[in-house]
Write a structure and sequence with these properties.
162 residues, alpha+beta, six-stranded antiparallel β-sheet, globular
Length: 162
């Protein structure tokens, strides 16, 4: 946790944000909560976002992966996909998250894969499948984000600082 993440972005996305002086690594990261939980985004495009999270440190009292931790991973991945879909003129804000927990995980890494179900002008909906290291489905989630226009104050929050 805490080390620099290396997300793979499509070249056109890199170029679009670089022209605005926006730090993609900061903008499309797991944020402070995700960083504390060890979430790492390893692939990101509007069509597919992949990330991992350790089970250790993210368990409930019975030693199983906490359902809230799965929700954090799901919302992070779906939000990144929604932000990439919205582009530089939109901000993605989660408005609905639904998680179904299928089985427990006690150790290792879980991997989440977010794929779009709907990508519109004002909303984006992603399905996020979280699996354990044996490829067994741990959780299925659906996230809908509202896409709203960027305000000048939003842009200041995503620009790199000196």
């Amino acid at each position: 946790m805490g080390e620099q993440q290396h997300v793979t972005f499509p070249q056109e996305v890199i170029d679009e944000y670089a022209a605005l002086g926006v730090d993609l690594q900061a903008l499309f990261s797991a944020g402070h909560l995700g960083n504390r939980m060890g979430v790492e985004i390893v692939e990101a495009s509007a069509e597919r976002v992949v990330g991992t999270m350790p089970v250790e440190g993210n368990t409930q009292p019975y030693g199983l992966l906490h359902g809230g931790a799965s929700a954090v991973l799901a919302e992070t991945l779906g939000s990144v996909g929604s932000m990439l879909h919205g582009g530089t003129s939109k901000i993605a804000v989660g408005v609905d998250l639904n998680c179904t927990h299928h089985r427990g995980a006690r150790s290792g890494l879980v991997t989440g894969v977010a794929t779009p179900l709907h990508r519109g002008r004002s909303t984006a909906t992603y399905e996020i499948v979280i699996s354990d290291e044996q490829g067994r489905r741990v959780c299925t989630a659906r996230l809908t984000c509202m896409l709203r226009d960027v305000n000048p104050s939003d842009a200041e929050r995503v620009r790199p600082t000196g």
